[in-house]
Amino acid sequence: MAKLTHEDILAYLEEATILELNDLVKAIEEKFDVTAAAPVAVAAAAAKDDCVLSMAKSYREDVIPVMDDLRAAVDALEVITPSEKWPVPAYSDIIFNV
Q1: Which helix (H) or strand (E) holds 78?
Q2: How far, in Å, CA of 45 to CA of 8, rounded?
C-alpha cells in the first residue's frame, strides 16, 4: 500500500462530501473501536469545569468583597439601632435564643 502524506489526506477531506466524511468517521470508529463523540464529551466536560471555575473565581473576586462591605455596614447599624426598631433578628438573638 502506498504511503499517504498529510497533504493527500487533507486534499481528500477537502473534496469529500458530508456523506462521505460521515461514512469515513463510522468506518474509523468501527475499525479502531472508538467513538468520535468521546473527545467532544471530554471537551464539553472541560469547558463546563472551566465555566464553573470561572464563576467561582468571579464570585470570590466580585461578590465576597461586596458582601463583606455590606455586612460591615449592617453590623454597624445593628449596634446603633435600638432592638425594638431593628426589623430582623440580631446575631445575638439568633445565637442565644434559637
Answers
A1: helix 64-80
A2: 33
